[in-house]
Design a protein that fits this description.
The chain has 389 residues and is an alpha/beta fold. It folds into two domains: 17-78, no CATH class; 81-378, Rossmann fold (3-Layer(aba) Sandwich), CATH 3.40.50.300. It is built from ten helices and ten strands. It has helices at 35-40, 53-61, 96-108, 123-138, 190-196, 199-202, 231-248, 293-326, 356-365, 376-387; strands spanning 17-19, 25-26, 65-67, 83-89, 118-121, 159-166, 172-181, 205-210, 261-266, 330-334. The strands form two sheets. Strands 5-6-7-4-8-9-10 form a seven-stranded mixed sheet. It has a three-stranded antiparallel sheet with strand order 2-1-3. Strand 6 (159-166) and strand 7 form a beta hairpin. The protein binds guanosine-5'-triphosphate, magnesium ion and zinc ion. Guanosine-5'-triphosphate binds next to helix 3. Zinc ion binds next to loops.
Length: 389
């Protein structure tokens, strides 16, 4: 079972603390308790049971809400669902915020509907998200750089979503999907990762965003400031990230991490159209209506290795070696969030391509979608199974 954490302060959650309208801790407003139960209470050593939907309904009526030990309000029924914590990692200007804004917008527009999955967003996240969306998608302006955090041990405010679908047996399944988008400036030094990247300790899914302009042979595509960052710093970022993941689990530096998956996103791929070596057909949208997910996934596996070849050819061998060997279960994806370069602060249009794939893979790795097609062995077994019939 995954460790449950408060999405705001990342404190572990075993049982929520219930609070009244003034914020004072109070009892969960469950059914009336008999004298015997009250007498037995002090003898209890097991943690309080996780509240059910009925408790939550009662609580809402009584103006009592479940919170984490530090008093952060939890979304309704948060603890009833497993949580997928996605951490975005990438240096300044990599396209983390732009990609995430476009991705969440597509989710809202029903991108997962062909899989029978609906998406809701927590009220508080929705208000913050709307600001980003309005600026990028409606006004077609560049997003501002994400501000670095000040307080040590803090984390950026997450975007919290709930995905609901139907499992194989017809039962409803739901998952909390929590995204953390930090400032690239604080994702490079290992001490900063420890101080401002606490979400990385709780992350089960990683989106590592790399801009083409940072690769030596693609330097002519760099946005202002990007070419001065240097590829070695990106490699260092990947190595530090790999160390943080293992440290969070008390594992030695080269240990296998089995509960995390990584999607490496080659962002701004719209710029790569004019690069002759770029395998242009790897930049495409997954049409979930035209083919089953498993066949998209075996294609993802193939495009991923072609993209690795391309990036190695572009001078990224060291970076790719670090990412593929040290980050858990990596796949590489070509993505364009906006479809075009910004000119004078504005995009001519917003036409995203390939944005959904990395998330689909991460959701499969986290167990919310079937992983079929993603791994060679698994595909091989299916084939062998067919042949032996
Ligand atoms: N051509 C193209 N440019 C993009 C795309 N996404 C982002 N950019 C450019 O890259 C700039 C930086 O993008 P951001 O999303 O702010 O980068 P970030 O990774 O969030 O950066 P920090 O918040 O500083 O860590 C944007 O202002 C655009 O100029 C894309 O899909 N295509
Ligand atoms: Mg940003
Ligand atoms: Zn909290």
């Amino acid at each position: 079972m995954r460790r449950r954490v408060c999405p705001r302060c990342l404190e572990p959650l075993t049982a929520p603390v219930w609070r009244d309208a003034t914020g004072a801790p109070t009892r969960p407003p469950v059914e009336r308790r008999g004298r015997w139960q009250r007498l037995l209470d002090p003898l209890r050593t097991d943690p309080l049971p996780v509240p059910t939907a009925r408790d939550a309904a009662g609580a809402a009526a009584a103006n009592v809400v479940p919170t984490c030990p530090r008093g952060h309000r939890l979304p309704p029924e948060y603890l009833d669902r497993p949580t997928v914590v996605v951490g975005l990692v990438g240096l300044t200007g990599a396209s983390k915020s732009t990609y995430l804004t476009v991705l969440i917008d597509l989710l809202h527009e029903g991108a997962l509907a062909p899989l029978g999955i609906s998406v809701e967003m927590d009220e508080d996240s929705a208000a913050r998200f709307d600001d980003h969306r309005y600026r990028l998608v409606v006004q077609r302006q560049q997003l501002p750089l994400t501000l670095p955090l000040l307080g040590e041990g803090s984390s950026p405010e997450p975007f919290m979503l709930v995905l609901r679908g139907t499992g194989r047996n017809g039962a409803e399944r739901a998952v909390n999907l929590v995204f953390f988008d930090a400032s690239g400036e604080q994702l490079y030094r290992s001490e900063d990762m420890g101080q401002y990247g606490r979400f990385l300790f709780a992350a089960t899914s990683l989106l590592v965003v790399l801009s083409p302009g940072v690769f030596p042979r693609l330097r002519h595509l760099a946005d202002p400031g990007e070419d001065s960052i240097g590829l070695a710093r990106h490699t260092q970022m990947v190595v530090n990230l790999a160390n943080v993941l293992r440290a969070a689990r008390n594992l030695p530096p080269d240990a296998h991490v089995d509960d995390v998956a990584t999607a490496v996103v080659l962002s701004k791929a719209d710029k790569l159209g004019a690069v002759p070596e770029f395998p242009a057909d790897t930049l495409r949208d997954t049409d979930l209506r035209s083919a089953p997910l498993a066949s998209w996934f075996s294609e993802v596996r193939a495009t991923s290795s072609r993209l690795v070849d391309f990036l190695e050819l572009s001078g990224g061998s060291n970076l790719l070696t670090a990412a593929l060997h040290r980050l858990p279960r990596p796949t590489v994806h070509a993505v364009s969030a906006t479809g075009a370069d910004a000119r004078d602060g504005g995009y001519p249009r917003i036409t995203p391509v390939g944005v959904l794939d990395p998330l689909l893979v991460l959701l499969a790795r986290a167990g919310f979608l079937s992983e079929e097609g993603l791994d060679e062995e698994e595909y091989g077994t299916t084939l062998r199974g067919e042949w032996s019939r």
